Amino acid sequence: MSKKGFIGLLLLLIAFGAMAKNKSPKREMRAVWVATVDNIDWPSKAGLSVEEQKKEMITLLDQHKKNGMNTIVFQIRPATDAFYISPYEPWSQWLSGEQGIAPDPFYDPLEFVIDECHKRAMELHAWLNPYRAVYNDAVTKTDSMHITNVHPEWFLKYGKHRYFNPGLQETRDHFAKIVGDVVRRYDVDAIHFDDYFYPYKIAGKSFPDSLSFVKNGGEFYPDRIEDWRRDNVNCVIKQINDTIKSIKPWMPFGISPFGVWRNKDVDKCGSRTKAGQTNYDDLYADVLLWLKNDWIDYVTPQIYWHIGKKVADHRIIAKWWRKNSFGKPCYIGHGAYRLNSKSKVKAWRNSDQIIRQIRMVRRLKGLDGSMFFSSKSFMNDLEGINEKLTEDVYSKPAIVPENGTIKAIVPNIPVGVKLNKSSSLLEWDGTELAKSYVIYRFKKASKVNLKYADKIIGLTANSYFKLNDDDKGYKYVVTSLSRTNTESEPSMEVIR
To answer: Smallest Cα–Cα separation from 458: which of 474, 234, 447, 283?
Structure first.
């Protein structure tokens, strides 16, 4: 993510096909990452009361819903600790201030956030970090049951942090167990990893896995350590995908890699960039292989640079990923956190840069949306970004896109749709396989056509929707959305 090693609320937005000016695409995943390491986004500081934590989260979700977001990517395991009830790992220090201490009075933050997201017809993607075990090893006090204390032989120290040794099958099995437990017990909508695989390289320091290479290098030993490292990451990605799909075949597994796969000067298939570090060569993440082999279901490259940047042009990199996503949904990353009126880079001195990037993504066929770092950027309304979203590019609701790589779950058509005139509620019977509903409004004389995004007036998880006073003189239809974001045919029309 950022080179500081943190990740925040992610905004994914997905645009399919052409769109009229100032109209949102119908299907657009707008997701927000909630970072927990060092309390980047939530909670604002460790040790807040449960009431304060909940209040902050509700405020956060309300703001992002207002901004038109439809997905939250919530970090639930920042450093081999948990923001949920885990039978395997201790409670995160970022909640109470001390690792291993449960919330008091007790609540489950992950369950709470899932419920609050689903109330708002927003998805919750559970974001886990695979290899980081201890953040800032010199000052972090780990719980006695933390895995680094139970199995110290599984870990390596590099820089300030401690990491799982990627070359051990034991570490892959442990992580697969963690992911499987979350998928099995929680109603999350997807599993998500960021860009932290092997750590970003530290000048003058080699990652200390040479002894592991001697022991576990197999066919790669003695002179192909970099290929071995990539294979280690490949193995964990495949194992995680297999784990997820064995439990919930409909559940997507997504990756948010560093923006540059490889530079063209070292690989003719790379992008026209001069990135100092890259996925393939430095993080040992062969993202293209994962896409090609169907080990991941979507990709969200972190292109946190401005349009026109000499060594890493946002436009050039976005076009490269468009051509190299192997048919998987591709959501482009935007560095909203860079917005600053005093920035040394002129492009980041106002929020127009972000709006330009969104519009560019929507114009480029083959790109499916956008991702933004971080939630705090919008909670602090950097350079007036919220108004730009609500009044312009996100002025209309959007449906989370259907992922064509996963077998569709087709929901039933809503029935019993009626208008309660006394309460101005549009009501219907809840339908089987529906996770939420889409409400469309049309002029009385017009035909019902679901392809126009500007006809969507709301998304809800309820079997009712409150109409505004100015919603008179129109007709309405309702559709169902399933867990795979497959949309039903429209209901019978209701005229108001």
So the answer is: 474
3-class DSSP assignment, residue 391: helix
Q: Given the structure tokens 């509700």, which residue do they identify?
A: 58
Q: How far is residue 211's CA from residue 209's CA, in Å, rounded to a whole number? A: 6
CATH of residue 450's domain is 2.60.40.10
**Cα distances (angstroms) measured from residue 175 to each of 130, 171, 444:** 7, 6, 55
The radius of gyration of the chain's CA atoms, rounded to the nearest angstrom, is 23
Q: Are residues 330 and 454 in the same domain?
A: no
Three-class SS state of 132 = strand
CATH number of the domain to which 172 belongs: 3.20.20.80
> Which pLDDT score is estimated for 371?
81
**pTM for this one?**
0.94
**What is the DSSP pairing of strand 161-164 with strand 71-77?**
unpaired
For 321-334, what is each residue's pLDDT tens digit?
999 999 999 999 89
pLDDT per position as a tens digit, 370-410: 888 899 999 999 999 999 999 999 999 989 889 888 999 99
**Is 409 strand, coil or helix?**
coil
307: phi then psi, degrees, rounded to nearest 5:
-65, 125
Q: Write out the residue range of the structural domain in which residue 144 sits.
A: 31-393
Pairwise CA distance, residues 255 & 197, whole Å: 11
